[in-house]
Amino acid sequence: MDDHELVRAFRQDGNQQAFAELLNRHQNKVYSYIYSMVMNPEVTNDIFQETFTKVITKMDDTYNEQGKWIAWVMRIAHNATIDHIRKRKRFVDVNATADSDYDFYDRLEDKDASDAQDDMEFREAKGSLLKHISSLPKEQREVVMLRHYHEMSFKEIAELTNVSINTALGRMRYALINLRKMFDKENGKTYEYVRRG
User: Fold this and answer.
1) Global pTM?
2) How far apart are CA 141 and CA 147, in angstroms?
3) Domain definitions of the chain by residue range
4) Level-2 CATH architecture, domain 116-196
5) Which CATH class is domain 3-87?
6) In this predicted model, what pLDDT tens digit does every residue of 137-172 receive, in sequence order?
7) Which GO terms describe its biological process (predicted)?
8) 103-to-53, 87, 98, 134, 183 alpha-carbon distances in Å
């Protein structure tokens, strides 16, 4: 069953197994998005639980079956995360390092690393990239995460963050400019890695 059929089974028949399947199918994406914004496992768990509580209670009232269910859920997760950040009266700075448990580019296959030296250089480049991404302004970091980690389209990013597509594109453009400036201060090999990535 696709998401649409599972949602309909849950809404019309109260099929708990259908909702469990939806949760199992998408929980990693939702959790990792929240974590990428707050970088704190306990806070992430709280916001994740809040998100799915709202999903269950609001599905009958506010979900429009014309749209993708996961896009609707991601919007709820996004709003809950932003609300949490605003309550703290400041945006959270990401202090991830190359040794962090969370690695932005773990999803990439290392196709070029044929020996230990190449592997080490590749990991150093990934760590350096993560460090620079973490130092971007929040709006730019968010677009980079959504585009490259969550593989969302700019239309989806614009809808999720409640901005125009041009604004989302502009934030990505400035993020890339800033990243290139950061890497320009480092050695040529790392900079070439970013250009290829």
Assistant:
1) 0.58
2) 10
3) 3-87, 116-196
4) Orthogonal Bundle (1.10)
5) mainly alpha
6) 989 988 888 887 777 888 888 988 889 999 999 999
7) DNA-templated transcription initiation
8) 28, 27, 7, 11, 18
d(CA 1, CA 40): 34
pLDDT, tens digit (0-9, with 9 covering 90-100), for 35-77? 888 888 899 999 999 999 899 888 888 888 777 899 899 989 9
The b-or-e profile of 40-70 (16+ CB within 10 A means b, else e) is: eeebbeebbebbbebbeeebeeebeeeeebb
Contact between 50 and 80 (Cβ < 8 Å): yes
| Residue-wise DSSP of 145-194 | IIIIIS---HHHHHHHHTS-HHHHHHHHHHHHHHHHHHHHTS-HHHHHHH
Three-class SS string for 91-127? Answer: CCCCCCCCCCCCCCCCCCCCCCCCCHHHHHHHHHHHH
* CB 96 within 8 Å of CB 131: yes
